[in-house]
Amino acid sequence: MGVYKRGTTWYIDYYAGYKRRREKIGPSRRQAETVLKKRMVQVAENRFLEVEKYDKIRFEKMTELYLENYSKPNKKSSRRDVTSINNLEPFFTAKYLHEITPLDMEKYKRGRQGKVSNATVNREVACLKHIFTKAIEWGIVQKNPGKKVKLLRERNTRLRYLDEKEIGRLHDACAEHLKPIVIVALNTGMRKGEILSLKWKHLDYRVRTISILDTKNGESREIPMNDIVYRTLLSAKKTDSPWVFCKKNGERYGNIRKAFEGARKRAGIVDFRFHDLRHTFASHLVMAGVDLKTVQELLGHKSFEMTLRYAHLSPEHKKAALDILCERMVTIWLQPSKLEKNESLEVLD
């Protein structure tokens, strides 16, 4: 048991339960040793799910393991996974996990197209891919058949963001308990669930950061506080509740939809949801000249493609960008060229 090399490739050799396992790692011995340590921890913590029993695990059993051991404990959006799996199971349930091929996934995509939107198909296929990712991590299968399966092209997703006047009207129309929630959303890009789940222990006023568990992918991320958020959160604490945003009795807000809809109507804003505050945050960052990579990090997107959805610009901003280019071009053209300078020198000679 340990690491060994064949040719230019390093492998690891270990036991999970009574089963001996070997894995191909790559050209780095250090990486092989790191993966081996990780596997040993997983075995010690019984996180290999008794894999010796699952050499021929059916898809239905794997989805059960996925939901109970990963999705439900780690993702607040686990209900979406349940919905996706309910649609996946009729197609894949009779198959053993190791029998599922890229072609099977392509057939599933074709079968769902036309019945539901491309976005829904993509969400289901993405869930299927991640089920295999976890199966590999848990030592149940060796390969992910979805690795090269491409998602469908989606139509331009609805993106609604507030302009400066609308932001002002919404702010003024918010009830007192809703106003700090909206302020935080507009200045951090946090999702509604992330904001309502905030506890005081998640805030570090010393370095001005908010630590949250991403409700989409179950991973933690840190969000910086700007001055507006810093002052808003400082003045928000009025009870001994662990929740940042809570009722007078200390209970967290479960639903603010009614309050937000009331504020939206009073502000005279149409076709706008709370989640669109996230679009507004990203859109105004881009219009202010912030690079997309930084926007991706602030939004907590794993995929850069997701961030591109927020990278649209208003017509005014595009025109301003071209005006900047115009000024630069005029400056260039007004400067004498090297040829003109040389001709002037020749005349002087």
Give a brief rundown of this model:
This protein is 51% helix and 9% strand. It has helices at residues 29-44, 59-74, 78-92, 102-112, 118-137, 164-173, 179-188, 192-196, 227-234, 257-266, 276-287, 292-299, 304-308, 315-334, 338-348, and strands at residues 2-6, 9-16, 19-26, 203-204, 209-213, 220-224. The protein has a three-stranded antiparallel beta sheet with strand order 1-2-3, covered by helices on one side.
Structure overview:
β5 and β6 (220-224) form a beta hairpin. This protein has a three-stranded antiparallel sheet, with helices on one face. A three-stranded antiparallel sheet has the order 4-5-6, with no helix packed on it. The protein folds into four domains: 2-48; 59-137; 164-308, hpI Integrase, Chain A (Orthogonal Bundle); 314-349. Mean pLDDT is 85; it is low at 50-54. α2 runs antiparallel to α3 (78-92), α3 packs across α5 (118-137) and α7 (179-188) packs across α11. The chain has 15 helices and six strands. With 349 residues, the protein is mainly alpha-helical. The radius of gyration is 27 Å and the shape is globular. The chain is 51% helix and 9% strand. The chain has helices at 29-44, 59-74, 78-92, 102-112, 118-137, 164-173, 179-188, 192-196, 227-234, 257-266, 276-287, 292-299, 304-308, 315-334, 338-348; strands at residues 2-6, 9-16, 19-26, 203-204, 209-213, 220-224.
